[in-house]
Design brief:
Elements lengths: L2 E4 L3 E5 L9 E7 L2 E5 L7 H10 L7 E5 L5 H4 L2 H7 L4 E5 L3 H5 L2 H11 L1 H8 L10 E4 L4 E4 L2 E7 L8 E5 L4 E5 L28 H13 L4 E4 L3 E3 L2 H21 L7 H20 L5 H7 L1 H16 L6
Parallel strand pairs: 4-5, 5-6, 6-7, 11-12
Antiparallel strand pairs: 1-2, 2-3, 3-4, 8-9, 9-10, 10-11, 12-13
Helix pairs in contact: 5-6, 7-8, 8-9, 8-11, 9-11, 10-11
Length: about 325
C-alpha cells in the first residue's frame, strides 16, 4: 500500500492501476468521516480498505464516493466500493449518473478501443450502482463532510461529465483530469512537470481553457490530480496548460489532411512536443523513460484530438 499524507487530513493512495504512481485515490478526512475522490478500478478496493484501517477508520466512516468523471480509470471501482461502503452516497456529474446506474455503454466503448480481454485485465468486473444512492452533482452543489464544505464545480473540456471538488478548508481543488497530468518521476529541483490530457471522446479545447480559468478564480494553493497527487505553483502551471492545449490543437489542425497517416503523424508530433517540454523544464530523465511513462497518454491524446478534429466543420 502506497499512502501519502498531506496537510489538512488529505491522503493520496496509489490505486495500483497499470503501474505505480499512475492513478491516485484521494481521501479527505474530517472528524472521523471520509470522502473518497475517484476510485481506480475494482482491484483498488483492497488497498483502500487497508488505507482506511491505517487511518483508524472503517468502511462505515465513508460518507461520499466522489467521481470527477466516469472514465474507467477514475470510476471503474465505483460499483464495488458502493457495495463495500454501505453508508456512502455516490457523487457524480449529472451527465455521468446514467453510466453508473447502467455501465454497459461505458464497457462497450472501452471494449471497442482495447478489446474484451484487455478490459477485463485492466478493470475487472464493472458493477452498477443503485440509483437511490446517487447524488447527481450540478455546479455549485455543496457537500457537508462533518461540517467541512466541499463544492462541486462543473469543469468540461476533458469530458462533458467532468467536475472538480473545491475544499475551502485546505484551499485546494481535486481536479481529476482537467488540470492535466503530473507524474512524480519528472519532478525536478522541487518543481512539478505538467501536461494536458485530451482523451477521447469529448475533448473540447475552448471548454478546457474556460475550466482552467474558472478554477484559478478560486485562488487555490494546491490542486490534487488523479494522475498524480498534489501540485502547487498553480498560476505558472495553468499558463503552461493553456499554451500546451493550444499546441495540441495546432498539431491536430496541421495534420488534418494527412489521410491514413494522420494518427501516426499526430502521435509523433505530440511525442516531440512532450520531449521538448521536458527538456525546457530541465528534467534529466532519459528520453526512453519519458516516452514510456507517457506512452498511453500520448496515444489517448492523439485519439482524442482525432475525434475533436472530425467533429469540426470542414475538418476544423
Amino acid at each position: 500500500m502506497n499512502l501519502c499524507h498531506y496537510q489538512d487530513d488529505i491522503h493520496a493512495l496509489d490505486a495500483g492501476y497499470v503501474r505505480p504512481l499512475l492513478a491516485a485515490i484521494h481521501l479527505i478526512v474530517e472528524d472521523g468521516r471520509v470522502a473518497i475522490v475517484d476510485t481506480g478500478t475494482q482491484t483498488s478496493l483492497a488497498p483502500l480498505r487497508a488505507a482506511l484501517e491505517a487511518l483508524d477508520l472503517t468502511a462505515e466512516s465513508v460518507d461520499y464516493v466522489i467521481l470527477t468523471h466516469v472514465h474507467l480509470d477514475h470510476a471503474g471501482g465505483a460499483g464495488a466500493m458502493m457495495r463495500a461502503f454501505a453508508n456512502a452516497r455516490l457523487v457524480v456529474h449529472r451527465r455521468g449518473a446514467a453510466h453508473m446506474i447502467d455501465p454497459s455503454r461505458l464497457i462497450a466503448g472501452v471494449t471497442a478501443v482495447y478489446g474484451e480481454l484487455e478490459v477485463s485485465r485492466l478493470y475487472g468486473q464493472i458493477l452498477p450502482v443503485d440509483e437511490g444512492r446517487i447524488i447527481r452533482a450540478t455546479h455549485g452543489l455543496t457537500l457537508d463532510l462533518a461540517g467541512r464544505n466541499l463544492l462541486c464545480v462543473d469543469t468540461p473540456g476533458h469530458a462533458r461529465h467532468h467536475l472538480c471538488l473545491l475544499d475551502r478548508k485546505s484551499r485546494s481543488i481535486f481536479t481529476g483530469d482537467v488540470f492535466g497530468l503530473s507524474y512524480r518521476e519528472l519532478d525536478t529541483d522541487g518543481r512539478q512537470f505538467i501536461f494536458p490530457t485530451t482523451t477521447p471522446v469529448q475533448f473540447d479545447p475552448e471548454a478546457m481553457h474556460a475550466s482552467l480559468d474558472l478554477l484559478m478564480t478560486y485562488q487555490p494553493e494546491f490542486v490534487y490530480l488523479t494522475h498524480y497527487g498534489r501540485v502547487g505553483d498553480l498560476p505558472e502551471k495553468a499558463a503552461r496548460l493553456h499554451r500546451l492545449v493550444d499546441a495540441h490543437v495546432s498539431i491536430a489542425r496541421r495534420e488534418r489532411d494527412a489521410g491514413a497517416d494522420r494518427h501516426a503523424r499526430v502521435r509523433a508530433a505530440l511525442s516531440q512536443l512532450l520531449l521538448d517540454e521536458v527538456e525546457r523544464f530541465g528534467c534529466r530523465l532519459p528520453t526512453t523513460e519519458v516516452l514510456g511513462l507517457f506512452a498511453s497518454d500520448l496515444e489517448l491524446n492523439a485519439q482524442g484530438l482525432a475525434v475533436w478534429l472530425d467533429s469540426q466543420p470542414s475538418g476544423g
